[in-house]
Description:
Layout: H1 15-26, H2 31-34, H3 46-60, H4 67-73, H5 78-83, H6 86-94, H7 102-130, H8 135-152, H9 161-176, H10 188-191, E1 201-206, H11 212-225, E2 229-234, H12 239-251, H13 264-277, E3 282-285, H14 292-305, E4 315-321, H15 333-351, E5 354-360, H16 386-389, E6 393-398, H17 400-404, H18 415-428, E7 431-439, E8 445-452, E9 457-460, E10 466-467
Helix pairs in contact: 1-3, 1-6, 1-7, 7-8, 8-14, 12-13, 14-15
Amino acid sequence: MTQHFNxxxxxxxxxxxxxxxxxxxxxxxxxxEISGQIRDEHFRDPTHAAIWRNVSARIERDHLAxxxxxxxxxxxxxxxKQLGGMAxxxxxxxxxxxxxxxxxxxxxxxxxxxxxxxxxRLEKLTRELRDGRSSDEVAAxxxxxLHQREETSSEPRTMSFLKAQKLALEQMxxxxxxxxxxxxxxxxxxxxxxxxxxKRYTILGGATSMGKTALALHMVLSAxxxxxxxxxxxxxxxxxxxANRINSAVSGIEYRGYDRPMGDxxxxxxxxxxxxxxxxxxxVFSERVRDVPAILSEGKKLKRKWKETENFKGFKLxxxxxxxxxxxxxxxxxxxxxxVANDLKQIAKQLDVHVIALAQIDRNLGKVDDFSEARPNxxxxxxxxxxxxxxxxxxxxxxPEYYLTPPRFTVPKKPxxxxxxxxxxxxxxxxxxxxxxxxxxxxxxxxKVGCDLSTNRFWDLDDGQEEIAF
Length: 470
């Protein structure tokens, strides 16, 4: 077999990738024996990775993958041309491994990738440590790496079904006794549909001006008042602005007025609200906390600081505003965001908290004239498919009132059309729809709630209106 790259000290011979590709090209059925364990990023050689991507895409669509189809599909691929094109593909088949050995070869390729990846990340951390990065941050990232290795390890990690069932029955008993298992959102209609349970993770999406941060702050205040410790990672606004918005929810004074001179009565309400808030278990993470390892490091400090007691549940809710601003690693924004989206799941597990990460969605929805066309769904999450795949829950906040309010909306001149607009506007005035687009342990539906974004307040409606969202 042709060798076209040198070993990288990872215990891996280049022929291994060639053997796997040749075996699958010779018999496409062999693809299904290893497709669950090997992906294109596991191949060290970029041309082999391109070949595997093409082969995977074809076989997954029930199409033939062969040297002939590859020759057509990758006709302009420079790497394949340099290796010999069709002649190289033919050599792959003639030297391919026997069917019984293909899984072993796939394991070798995956293990070699793991070694390269781990070595690269450890070398990077060593350089950063020498360049002055905080030892706490580096230690937190190393812990994250080890946890990820444990999650993907082929070594068996089991729990007896009896123990798992016992834990599940204990949880059901708690729920039956009226004890909410998850962190309370402050909206009973929402808690009835989806649980903000520990070790789970929720994406809360919405277009600009829909009220993502306001809803998150309502949840923060509700959880803290119920005896749950809350950490808030604010990557978009200064800590002082965040404090003003939370104070506004208690004082009832519009938060936009906090930057203007206040009368004595209003200022007294703000002071009283501050006194009400000062003993709540709520901490805002420093602006220096901008990546997942730093979030984990600060979260562990809160975990140690906030011990569970009879009346205090400990650190149980972590809000991140917002996910697209968290620094990730990787060569592109897509890769970085995908990594962050998956790492937050590990944060939830390691800290035993529920993570709520706010997310921007397709900005074009904010430009739509007809609000019925602006209703968000999973396809509108911006930046990475892992924003949909990684979390346990995905929710959106949607306010038709935003689209129906002048001057954004042109009020019809015809009396009958104006009457229709007035009826629709009144139906949605001071209300929002929380759309549950994904819920691993809940319902796919939506709930309508009352809201006042000027004071960051949300409440259940008396009629508890609900409608199926999908």
